[in-house]
Amino acid sequence: MAAKLSLSFVFSLILCFSSSSSSHDGIDTYIVHVQGSHKPSLFTSHSHWHNSLLRSLPSSPHPPTLLYSYSRALHAFSARLTPSQTSTLLLHPSVISLTPDQAREIHTTHTPAFLGFSDNNSPLWTNSNYGEDVIIAVLDTGIWPEHPSFSDSGLDPVPSTWRGACETAPDFPPSSCNRKLIGARAFYKGYLTHRNGSTRSEESRSPRDTAGHGTHTASTAAGSVVFNASLYQYARGVARGMASKARIAAYKICWTGGCYDSDILAAMDQAVTDGVHVISLSVGAKGFAPQYHKDSIAIGAFGAMRHGIVVSCSAGNFGPGPQTATNIAPWILTVGASTVDREFTANAIVGDGRVFTGTSLYAGEPLRDSQIPLVYSGECGSRLCYPGKLNSSLVEGKIVLCDRGGNARVEKGSAVKIAGGAGMILANTAESGEELTADSHLLPATMVGAKAGDQIREYIKHSISPTATITFLGTLISPTPPSPRVAAFSSRGPNHITPVILKPDVIAPGVNILAGWTGMIGPTDLDIDPRRVEFNIISGTSMSCPHVSGLAALLRKAHPEWSPAVIKSALVTTAYDRENSGEPIEDLATGGSSNSFVHGGGHVDPNKALDPGLVYDVEARDYVAFLCAVGYEFPGILVFLQDPSLYDACERSKLRTGGDFNYPSFSVVFGSGVDVVRYRRVVRNVGSDVDVVYEVGVEAPGNVEIDVSPRKLVFGKESRELEYEVTFKSGVIGSVPGLEFGSITWTDGEHVVKSPVAVQWSQGSVQSF
Ligand SMILES: *[C@@H]1O[C@H](CO)[C@@H](O)[C@H](O)[C@H]1NC(C)=O
Ligand SMILES: *[C@@H]1O[C@H](CO)[C@@H](O)[C@H](O)[C@H]1NC(C)=O
Ligand SMILES: *[C@@H]1O[C@H](CO)[C@@H](O)[C@H](O)[C@H]1NC(C)=O
């Protein structure tokens, strides 16, 4: 099935002229992918060669400028080029493709206990010594080095394998780095070219985090233990990263104008050189994920994976629509966001006595308890409460109900405050459903779900003098509402690039997460917010990704021989899909059950992942074979073949289709006459017993018959790896159903190795079996 590939192919070259941003005289920044193996030996380094390629271009009033030369995670360089220079480069036999530099965006603690790290004896913590000496690269907005989460007290000297650096600057002295924060670098050459050479005044061209996001994600992944941490009175307790003894290397790639591919690739390339073990990247494409060979994060992650590095990424906050997940390449660990069992409850009580439960992190003077006049923003000039759009004479001294959407939630409260309002009830609309996000509002405010919002709007409409008040109940850890539940914003599958790869892989805490913050801006991130806090509570798949990055570090330490694919497999097959109430995990966007296109294998279960029983492994050449099997051709696939040992991966592949790829989950696509598909899998026994028998259990989706062969796997000393085949038959007659879900579970009585099964039908699949 795999197309026969050889390097004698004539390269038909690709150039994507999409979204060119700040071009003057047509000059733009490009990533130029080259065949590393073509480097003539007279050049001592790839950057010499890249420079010479640029110098060989015809002379021009605009000589090309090289920004970065990449040689570890990928073979490429980035440069400022005129249109005629790009055309000339494309004719060069060593140039594979040119892609315009593009901006990505950031996907914006009690969680250890929720994850099952209930005490210091938790198996994964003790078996990994809290991830000691594992190095996590956090590619983000930089880091606030003075934060107590980056204290190195009790840590051993920096691991001898570390080859990175602490880049200093006036606002980032050498003392910024220590045994916890072992490296810090800033990448802005790409960003600068899009800003005409100047950063914004509030930004620092150093690794210092002036935005907060990078400090939050780094402390979530690997922050040291901090007692009595809180945001004002909220979430007080012990804050700690998932791998509290892992080391952090901060790579600042995101700036106020976004995170540019050229800078992201430079950081990934450097992280490989520096010797990191895990890359945590809470950044992704805006909108739909690009094709893998045009997606710089996918390309850089491939190179990192080839060096044994786990790349853990956020799925994005573009839910709840289908196919919204980004960072969906099979070699990436893709993480969605869910809730935990902690609430910051603030009730809205309306004049007729009804109480609507909401959430808030407001920390100032409370409202006086008596009822206050209540108005709807839609009657006061701005349904979404845009700043400057509310009529002061209508909102003065009143509580304003604002609709969610359009602008930042805290900005709505600020708009109400500036217009003279006394408080705000922020109400979801159908789009955001029942998902609640706690914010540290600048005025007394709470946020309620869509159902409560509708009832309060009705109440206002039908009352002669509507009133309300808000009462703040603080932090409640409680089994109600049940958790985890998937956030409405969490991006979802199906995977629109390779539908046979189920995405996201797992979900992890991403709603109302307490972690470290920058000293540069307030908790609301608004210029008008003068407050400064040590910890902040924010939400996003940006927050769930570093949880899993930290878990990957722990697993890596506990099982140094595990590949990135095995670590992913362990997390996916041990994840759970039930809330703490016993019910299926709810999707907060719909109020109904979530599914595998929303939560992948389910919520991570770290202590179970330590001992998964069986694992699904793959290596770099298997991914190449997969790309061929799903139809990737030259030249696109060349960007992944940096290593000549991968050149024959497609020819020698045993994959019949992309579905045979040894992924720990199943995504089945029926359609256009295809109503039977067969997927092959190979499992390796990594349990403590060499001789063990696993039996299969099948939960078949509706309209689908599943047959597993063999149904019993007998492992022994000589047979640690065994193969099985699954036949999926569509039983659909007539109209095509939506999506269906099930699972395939292997168990030896002790381990439960569960793979989710997701099935979709494309039009035209109407035969019965
Ligand atoms: C850069 O300069 C160009 C041309 O003067 C201008 O159109 C563009 O807005 C500038 N970009 C930024 C980010 O200042
Ligand atoms: C925790 O910090 C707060 C101030 O943020 C302080 O009032 C309180 O005494 C501290 N508690 C402990 C046990 O240190
Ligand atoms: C604001 O509301 C008052 C009272 O209804 C009205 O007289 C005034 O015209 C409104 N102002 C604007 C700018 O709409």
Automatic annotation (TrEMBL):
<keyword id="KW-0720">Serine protease</keyword>
<dbReference type="GO" id="GO:0004252">
    <property type="term" value="F:serine-type endopeptidase activity"/>
</dbReference>
<dbReference type="Pfam" id="PF02225">
    <property type="entry name" value="PA"/>
</dbReference>
<dbReference type="Pfam" id="PF00082">
    <property type="entry name" value="Peptidase_S8"/>
</dbReference>
<dbReference type="InterPro" id="IPR041469">
    <property type="entry name" value="Subtilisin-like_FN3"/>
</dbReference>
<feature type="compositionally biased region" description="Basic and acidic residues">
    <location>
        <begin position="200"/>
        <end position="211"/>
    </location>
</feature>
<feature type="active site" description="Charge relay system">
    <location>
        <position position="213"/>
    </location>
</feature>
<dbReference type="GO" id="GO:0048731">
    <property type="term" value="P:system development"/>
</dbReference>
<dbReference type="InterPro" id="IPR000209">
    <property type="entry name" value="Peptidase_S8/S53_dom"/>
</dbReference>
<dbReference type="InterPro" id="IPR010259">
    <property type="entry name" value="S8pro/Inhibitor_I9"/>
</dbReference>
<keyword id="KW-0325">Glycoprotein</keyword>
<dbReference type="GO" id="GO:0005576">
    <property type="term" value="C:extracellular region"/>
</dbReference>
<dbReference type="Pfam" id="PF17766">
    <property type="entry name" value="fn3_6"/>
</dbReference>
<dbReference type="InterPro" id="IPR036852">
    <property type="entry name" value="Peptidase_S8/S53_dom_sf"/>
</dbReference>
<dbReference type="InterPro" id="IPR034197">
    <property type="entry name" value="Peptidases_S8_3"/>
</dbReference>
<feature type="active site" description="Charge relay system">
    <location>
        <position position="542"/>
    </location>
</feature>
<keyword id="KW-0378">Hydrolase</keyword>
<keyword id="KW-0645">Protease</keyword>
<feature type="domain" description="Subtilisin-like protease fibronectin type-III">
    <location>
        <begin position="660"/>
        <end position="759"/>
    </location>
</feature>
<dbReference type="InterPro" id="IPR046450">
    <property type="entry name" value="PA_dom_sf"/>
</dbReference>
<dbReference type="InterPro" id="IPR003137">
    <property type="entry name" value="PA_domain"/>
</dbReference>
<dbReference type="InterPro" id="IPR023827">
    <property type="entry name" value="Peptidase_S8_Asp-AS"/>
</dbReference>
<feature type="active site" description="Charge relay system">
    <location>
        <position position="140"/>
    </location>
</feature>
<dbReference type="GO" id="GO:0006508">
    <property type="term" value="P:proteolysis"/>
</dbReference>
<dbReference type="Pfam" id="PF05922">
    <property type="entry name" value="Inhibitor_I9"/>
</dbReference>
<feature type="domain" description="Peptidase S8/S53">
    <location>
        <begin position="131"/>
        <end position="600"/>
    </location>
</feature>
<feature type="signal peptide">
    <location>
        <begin position="1"/>
        <end position="23"/>
    </location>
</feature>
<protein>
    <recommendedName>
        <fullName>Subtilisin-like protease SBT1.4</fullName>
    </recommendedName>
</protein>
<dbReference type="InterPro" id="IPR037045">
    <property type="entry name" value="S8pro/Inhibitor_I9_sf"/>
</dbReference>
<keyword id="KW-0964">Secreted</keyword>
<keyword id="KW-0732">Signal</keyword>
<feature type="region of interest" description="Disordered">
    <location>
        <begin position="196"/>
        <end position="217"/>
    </location>
</feature>
<feature type="domain" description="PA">
    <location>
        <begin position="373"/>
        <end position="456"/>
    </location>
</feature>
<dbReference type="InterPro" id="IPR045051">
    <property type="entry name" value="SBT"/>
</dbReference>
<dbReference type="InterPro" id="IPR015500">
    <property type="entry name" value="Peptidase_S8_subtilisin-rel"/>
</dbReference>
<dbReference type="InterPro" id="IPR023828">
    <property type="entry name" value="Peptidase_S8_Ser-AS"/>
</dbReference>
<feature type="domain" description="Inhibitor I9">
    <location>
        <begin position="29"/>
        <end position="107"/>
    </location>
</feature>
<comment type="similarity">
    <text>Belongs to the peptidase S8 family.</text>
</comment>
